[in-house]
Write a structure and sequence with these properties.
It is built from 17 helices and no strands. The chain is mainly α. It has two domains: about 10-215, Clc chloride channel (Orthogonal Bundle); about 225-425, Clc chloride channel. The longest helix has about 40 residues, at about 10-50. The protein is globular, with a radius of gyration of 21 Å.
């Protein structure tokens, strides 16, 4: 029998380690979510209180947001440059041996930097930090138990999937994300670890967060086949809008790159101050955006302001990501997708009044379609939105919309956003391969 590589662990041991990774990722991810919720409440209360101070209150809010974003950018620059942004492209690059493995300090930078950045009102999501923290936890566990690098990779993918599962209370989506976006294959050893970690993470997280889906949506009826082409049209619109969003995000990053002579903290402070100004006048439009999405899905949003809110969030998301702080893309994408879907559903209802179309059904489907247009991971998008809304009757329309949203960017040659971000990371950071093995000698090959 062929000899095993040094550090190789049995399938049973790998499974137990994956459960351990999932438990730790679920615990850290749940605490991160609760801390972000507290930060959001604090920001909202501070804005209300500051309005009593008029101009002095305005300066306090703008200055506070600027200081928080600058502090987050400083943490990243000073202690862990790879903690910048979503973290998902960095995890993908680690799994491809293109970037150094995540050092333990990344976990702290991602946690506290994410709280400062997202809590200050940047339109960033909690899932990016949760994914990268899960990967960092997995690497620590793999090294503690002297796993071979191939097994460490399996654990890192499992930890990242567990992080996403915790971020959105969506265990199946976490596993699917690991397969579709991170490792891009399904083989038994990886599948067992990923499923075990996601399940363990959710079991722990739900002790703190509860079992309910992230969004409350009234039960929606099954959509008949005659309406499916309308959802495909929504998918076309989402695919085109997703391409524009990717271009806007990359343009914002290129703009900040051209300002490299300015310290990253100054750039972050400028973006934070801009968000603070917006938050002073429109506090409900800043932050990760879960409250915005819930209002859209609950029918509590005035259609008259949806186009303006969509445009503001569209620009705010791109600008926020350019701040070089920890923060993800998924949650802001869901906001835009819900708004786009609600607009499309309303227009379709006016154009085809006899079909009995429900605009909120389009909002749910729009979330998955816009996600697909940007990330080009349709299965993850479909499963994620289905788990977050419990809208199982919309699976077929969702498939129709995501088919179109995936087709359009590929026909036009647009790259998925994480491919573009990953290429940018490698181009800018050019890691020293001799320093790739954090914490000791290479024991992996």
């Amino acid at each position: 029998m062929a000899s095993r590589p040094r550090g190789y662990v049995s399938l049973l041991v790998l499974s137990l380690l994956a459960l351990l990774v999932g438990i730790a990722s679920g615990l850290i991810g749940a605490i991160f979510r609760l801390t972000l919720d507290a930060a959001d409440r604090f920001r909202g209360s501070a804005i209300v209180w500051a309005h009593g101070g008029k101009f002095a209150g305005f300066l306090l809010i703008v200055g506070g947001c600027a200081a928080a974003v600058a502090a987050a950018a400083w943490l990243v620059r000073r202690f862990s440059p790879y903690a910048s942004g979503s973290g998902i492209p960095q995890v993908e690059a680690v799994l491809k041996d293109e970037l150094p493995r995540p050092p333990p300090r990344l976990l702290l930078v991602k946690f506290f930097g994410g709280v400062l950045a997202i809590g200050s009102g940047l339109a960033l999501g909690r899932e990016g930090p949760s994914v990268q923290m899960g990967a960092a936890i997995a690497h620590v566990v793999g090294r503690l138990f002297r796993c071979d690098w191939l097994d460490c990779k399996v654990l890192i993918a499992a930890g990242a999937g567990a992080g996403l599962a915790t971020a959105f209370n969506a265990p199946i989506a976490g596993a699917v994300f690991a397969f579709e976006e991170l490792v891009r294959r399904v083989e038994p050893r990886t599948a067992i670890a990923v499923l075990g970690a996601s399940a363990a993470a959710i079991a722990v997280a739900r002790v703190f967060l509860g079992p309910d889906p992230d969004f409350t949506v009234v039960p929606l009826a099954y959509v008949g086949a005659p309406a499916w082409p309308l959802f495909a049209v929504l998918g076309v619109a989402a695919g085109l809008a997703g391409m524009l969003y990717n271009a806007a995000l990359l343009c914002a990053l290129s703009t900040t790159d051209r300002l490299a002579r300015w310290p990253v903290e100054i750039r972050g402070a400028a973006i934070g101050a801009t968000v603070g100004v917006l938050g002073w006048f429109l506090p409900d439009l800043i932050g990760g955006g879960d409250d915005i999405t819930q209002r859209v899905l609950a029918g509590g949003t005035s259609l008259a302001i949806v186009p303006l809110a969509f445009l503001l969030r569209f620009g705010l998301g791109a600008v926020s990501y350019a701040a070089a702080t920890p923060g993800g893309l998924f949650a802001p994408l869901l906001v835009l997708g819900a708004q786009l879907g609600l607009l499309a559903g309303t227009l379709c209802g006016v154009a085809f009044p006899g079909m009995g179309l429900e605009p909120r059904a389009f909002a749910v489907v729009g979330m998955a379609a816009f996600f697909t247009g940007v990330v080009q991971a349709p299965v993850t998008g479909i499963v994620l939105v289905t788990e977050m809304t419990a809208s199982f009757p919309l699976l077929l329309p969702m498939i129709s919309a995501c088919f179109a949203a995936m087709l359009i960017p590929n026909l036009l040659g647009a790259a998925p956003i994480y491919d573009s971000l990953g290429a940018r990371t490698l181009r800018l950071q050019k890691p020293d391969r001799s320093a790739a093995y954090i914490g000791g000698q290479d024991d992996t090959h």
